[in-house]
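Problem 12. The chain below contains 620 residues. Write out its predicted structure in token notation.
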Amino acid sequence: MNWHHPHAVTRRGELGRLLVVVVFGFLILAFFRVQVLSSSRYRLQSEENRLRPVRIPAPRGQITDRHGTVLAENVPGYTVALIASSGDSLRATLGRIAGIARLDSAQIARTLARYQRRPFDPVTVLSDAEFEIVSTLEERRAWIPGLVIQSEPKRRYPFGEIAAHVVGYVGEISESELNSDAFRGARAGMIVGQDGLERAYDSLIRGEEGVRFVEVDALGRTVREAGDETRLEAQPGNTVRTTIDIGLQQHVAEAFPLGRRGGVAVMDPRTGEMLALYSSPTYDPNGFVGGLDPAIWQVLSQAEDSPLLNRVVQARYPPASPWKLVVASMAMKRGLVGLGSQMPIPCTGGMRYYNRYFRCWRVQGHGVLNLAEAIQHSCDVYFYQLGLRLQLANMLHDVGELGFRDVSGIDLPNEIQPIFPPSTEYYNRRYGPRGWTNAVTLNLAIGQGENAQTLIGMTRFYAMMANPDGTAPEPWFVEPADVRNRRRVGLDPDALGGLREALVAVVARGTAAGARVENLRIAGKTGTAQNPHGPDHGWFIGFAPAEDPQVVVGAIVEFAEHGSAVAPLVTQIITRHLYGARGASPRALDVDLDVPADSAPQPLPILPDPTTRRDPTRPR
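Solution.
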């Protein structure tokens, strides 16, 4: 074909024009799609690149006592955050403001770690900044790229140490907590409850965050605040009203022996409402607001006296003589004894069981006693024999029925489970099938041996003893206990009434006689728990008025040496609750009060000697 022919030239021109038209057609279609069909999508991307969301924290709901007195509230505070385009730019900006914001290397490292988790959100530098720091940073905003300062609610605990173990504290959510069902819906950087009621009811108290937008330039520097039409306001959390009586709580804190470790639980036996709960030593939850210095946290968490430990629900102790009421109720329920029953061996200061001599706390002995008198005088020899009559297998079974292997159900986090052997197989595993004897029953019968209970669990049992029907609900602060979970001692009203009278005799003329109150019938039981690490611990659990119990109080004081020294603390709290501030003036009690000679404790063997020759009555 001759391409120089006039017809060929014309054809080439037509093809060229067609090619140009097609190319321009494609370009026009592409521009149309970008400019018209996809304009909203690209506009959104542009806005997203230009606008950065800033979370607006929700004010946490208040926590109040039963009368509406505020236990946890919010006060104004300031948060300093940075918007960064990269980790290097954030590091440079942090270095620039470190002197002004008083940042150390640990704080800078934590800020960089937060940025790595969520690089597209403003990263918090200070969650509780002082006004002086905020003012200085604001003055230098022009040379601090991405600076975000906003007013945020800050938690405050008006009663500080007094209610710390009940109310708890707040802190920034951890990585592990983000994946926990307890904090469903929370995000990284959010402030959540870390202990106490703050944690137990965090989902109610937390509220819902809002969001606002700030406009930034290509370098990540804040240009201006976006309009209100893009702002979503935060929704405050719910107020939580508790059963606590803060006046009574203050009285308990002031009356507790100064410098001593231990705890107090005050409960309405009829409803399960917790009126007060105090653990000593304590801590100031206000120190956790805005983040706790790691050095201070290390001191608190590793302190020998464990101030963060709630000794009412998170510590276990040998229940000692208050446990004798448990053994008595189990034996009476099985029809093995009555209140007038005597044991074949009188108390002469101890009892020989094969080649072991088990002592009573009263070296002179108690002589011949019936069950009611044995409770009144806390005779160990009587209960050694009662334990043998009850038999180990029955005791192990009945303890489970009464709930002494389970948590109490109180609505506080991290309640610890009591310890009590589930079966005789426990002893076989620990000592070998021939390495133990039925002597373990003697120790269990007086609240020693392989038996460790919480104060709240023992207090709940005494609530069963206090109520006419022999039942008690779960203890609670906020949500009423489930009526289906009432524990039952299983005794008829006459038997219960007789045991209550025996407990009244303990305070009227028994081991707690030094703590009796005129014109008030208080029922209770002292106890001295062996402690391998030092002086014995002292127990007292009591309720009143005995004829119509309205309050039950359990207390344990570590290293108190004897339970009779703890009884005045409990009776004073009972009086304060029943008669108000006029009934008893709060004062620090001295745990070294004079104690009658017949109530001074004697050490008891905790465990049987594994080398003891085999007892023919040992369960096989």
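Discussion. Residues 44-48, 584-620 have pLDDT under 50 and may be disordered. Students who got a different answer should revisit the alignment rule from Section 12.3.
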